[in-house]
Description:
By secondary structure, the chain is mainly alpha-helical. It has helices at about 5-20, 40-55, 65-80, 80-85, 90-105, 115, 120-125, 125-140, 150-160, 160-170, 175-185, 195-215, 225-240, 245-260, 265-280, 285-300, 300-305, 315-345, 345-350, 350-360, 375-395, 405-410, 430, 435-460, 460-465, 470-480, 515-520, 525-530, 545-555, 560-570; strands spanning about 485-490, 505-510, 540-545, 575-585, 585-590.
Amino acid sequence: MAAAWPAVPLLAALALWVYAVRHTDVSALDDYGLVSTLHPAFWAGLAVLTAGFWFTVRDPRRRAGWPAAYVLGLLVIERATQAVLYPTPLYAWAWKHDAVIDHLLTSGGLQSADQLGDMAVYDQWPGFFAAQAALVRLLGVDNAAMYMAWWPLVSSVLLLLPLLLIYRTFTEDRRLIWTAVWLFCVGNWVGQDYFSPQSVAFALHLGVLAVVLRRYGRPGGRQRQAVWTVLLSVLVIAIVVSHQLTPGMLVVTLLALAFTRRHRDWVPLVTTVVIFLAWCLTAALPFLSAAMPDMIRSVGDIGANVETGYGSTPTGTGAVATSWAARLLSGSVLLLALAGVLRQRALRQRALPLLLVAAAPLPMFAASSYGSEMIFRVLMFMLPGAAFFAAAALLPRVPVPEPTADARQTERGVPPAPAAPAPRRRSPLLSLPPLRYAAWLSPLVLLAGTLAFVPSYSGKDRVNYFPPGEVALVRQLFDQAPDDSLVVAANRNYPLAYEQYWRVDHYWFLEDTRTHVDDIVRDPAAVLARDMAGVEAPARAYFLLTQGQVANSEMNGQLNTAQLRRVRESVAHSPRFERVARNSAGVLYVLKPAS
């Protein structure tokens, strides 16, 4: 009976979660996103789950499978809630990636910039999309939208194996390992786990690090180095052909590791650089040739690289509050990591490579802005190392084995010294620290971070969620739009925004110069009609304004409610436009032919 005790809080937490999602209504999201709509049982379930995990992971009498069960329960509550609550997939970018997969299935192959314009960049990094196109056909579904709502859960579970391998390289203390995994899960709020190439590339990145840390830094590893180099090469190729940024992050991380005595093997770094350069100088060369001037200008401009720019400033109480929750969560993990480094001296020396893994992405601030997202990507790539030392800060002194002397003797051909007799094991009850105030501070910090994940991750669901009516409206547009038509919208935050991009053009006026945006706000119908007048029959020019565009504009400081209302009313009352469709999620107009 006592052995099954950890199942009680785990099952109770999942039961509370099930009850909460059955009694949560997402039909009217506000600026706090999912936070303000969740049933109180959801928060109670997270609290019960965190408490059960903390007392289970610190009890040496419990089997190692229980912490794993709790982490899986955490991922279900964190990443599956949106898939259960929302009837349509989240994120405009996920819908965009579905369109790229549809293009591959339709065209049957890759195409050039002459055929696809800016969207050809996806054909130059086709790894993820080609694999998903094959999966769509294998499953026999119509498109990736049939399963991409569950991708955050799937991609998060994929991270667990390489993460565990990395942590177990430096410690056998399961308290530290699983607390680090928990902190990684709650600290990974950046939102790159959605249906995207970077979600898979990040898992492969951790896989490469696991191979390097476990097989290239240990005595005797060179005997099978060729095998591990082949495996590493396969992982690197999959990364390089799928994503632009992850190979760069991998290179700087491997470079940092190569300067340590324990991992002074240049094979992983050279292999990665050669594969990366080979792809950049062949398949990716058209895109890089066009983007190179801007990339060179951004090198060294750290201020501009971390600046968000126009149209990306959180506006409104809810947007600001959730933005600060995310910043505080990341800041807390980094501060805890610093405390762990300072407090656990022996662990710091033992796990120096993980400290380098956490620090290595920082120079990327000087390399590029990456569309104003570099700060978020750097945080994500720092997290595996930072979570490990943050967990060390929450635990009592972590015992660190010292195999380094024997390892050095083994490398020199000297047999290791006989192992000292193991000390007598203390009673499990005596091994737990006494219940003092400080002993309760760590679980409270862990609980605060777990709860803070929800607003950090789901606080912008008003922007990221598209109701079925919005999906139906946009689908109606593309069902009737002739070839070479033009779709004009405020921004690209709507579902199916890139549907059939190989035959329909788009113009998002909020991405134009500030002067032109001001002109549109002053006289919306006249300026928009002028911008759309160049479309020749039989193609048509459409104006689309949807719920997702409005939410994105208002919450990111682009146009406020009054300005958006002015745009919509001006187009509605203009004789140049004819309404094609309307529902509760948006409206669609077409520009009448000039008489």
